[in-house]
Amino acid sequence: MDNKQTLASMQKEVDEYIQQFKAGYFSPLSQMARLTEEVGELAREVNHYYGEKPKKIDEKENTVAEELGDVLFVTMIMANSLDIDLTDVFQKNMSKFNQRDKFRFERKDGQTHD
């Protein structure tokens, strides 16, 4: 697998994976439940590694990266099923953040306004 894949190529790969199964894409509500489940698993791992709640001795060893990957995968499934181009969404979001939040936080370059 090429480590420099684009969002579009990743969405295509996820679609090809899903298309091999008769069930295909689940309903948006089912996907939202799955995304929520994966975000919960990510939160649990973050809490174990960076919070005050260590893992129990008998708990499976997962990583934050693994759980974040699951969140990304399920996000792509949901985007595909709703015909959402994540590259387009990302570009629009970055434009919004670069305009709206340009001076929201203290900047390294010292700028405070336009």
TrEMBL record:
Entry keyword annotation includes Transmembrane helix: no
Superkingdom of origin organism: Bacteria
Keyword Nucleotidyltransferase applies: no
Residue span(s) of domain NTP pyrophosphohydrolase MazG-like: 26-105
GO MF annotation terms: hydrolase activity
Keywords: Hydrolase
PANTHER family, sorted: NUCLEOTIDE PYROPHOSPHOHYDROLASE
Name assigned to this protein: MazG nucleotide pyrophosphohydrolase
